[in-house]
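Take one record.
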Amino acid sequence: METQINTKPEVFNPSKLLTPIGSELDFIFKSHNKDISELNVSNLKQKERLSKKQIVRAKDLLGLEDSFVSIMMNFQDNYHIQKQKAEYNHKQALSLFKKLKYVLTLIREEEKTGFDDLDNIVLFYGCENEEEVLNHIEVTKTFFRKQNQSDINEINLTAIIRRGEIDLSKCYDLAQYDKGKLIAWIENREWINKISSTNYFKELPLIFKEFGICLLLYPYVPKTIHGCVKWIDKTPLIIISDRGQDIASSWFTLFHEIGHVVLHENQSIYDIDLKDSDKRKIETEANKFANKYLFGGNSLQKKVFAIQKEGENTTKEALAHEFNTHPLLAKYWMRKAKLIPQNYIDKIKFEL
């Protein structure tokens, strides 16, 4: 069987659609049943420019009127004008594609229905053209920077948010949002006994469907979000990234985002690292929410950093017992306080 390869270009060059004068003459000669070889021009079909003398010769061989010469000369001039424009547009498109290229990693194969990779990106954003894509990115960037001034890659950011919007639109069996069911699940604390299970965490999107929440787990995209909440038609969309690929951090990010859903209904919020001085009120509230349910408040955190300051020793089991939490979560703060190595984590990795 012949191997199938992807021949779709990154950015299609529109000049390839233009017909050079040589190819046009070849067609005319064939349509008049004339022998093109009598014109004595090698590789005629590839010729982009012919002399007036050669065009006159073609007119004579075809037995056409003198006006044919001016028509073909104009055809040739117009071709070069159009080619120059096409080449310029192609160069601009290539420059744009270099900026947007990473977006391709978030587009699934079955969604790549465009005529080139840049067109696939335009379709991914639900736009008509490249200009609309840039406008979309600018709007998202502006919205993000109203929340904080942290260093982000606005293209990567808009791509991951757009990926979430598309996947939400495909979530046909999502229940209506039910805040009561969500809080009941949190208060039930059934999850605490399964908190170290990567399989359980990856099953949470199915559980959250029953609460009317679209929870999506994505690989971390550089210089973007740890997590976010976006409300779409009164439906909360939560995106969690596997930044650090640490299951304890994933749980904290999840409960932080749940805090936004519960406390800040209908507010879309993108979360990344912020300096303490930049913490906004709603971020503090979401952190308190996560601390309350994961760590029983901030006493565990204070104890760990006090131990670190005094140079004392402890274990995750002892801390978990003292503060009625899971050893995995005690280890989370021990790592923050550098009581244990930073790479001492329980790994988890999400797939797109």
Q: What stands out?
A: The CA atoms of residues 304 and 310 lie 10 Å apart.
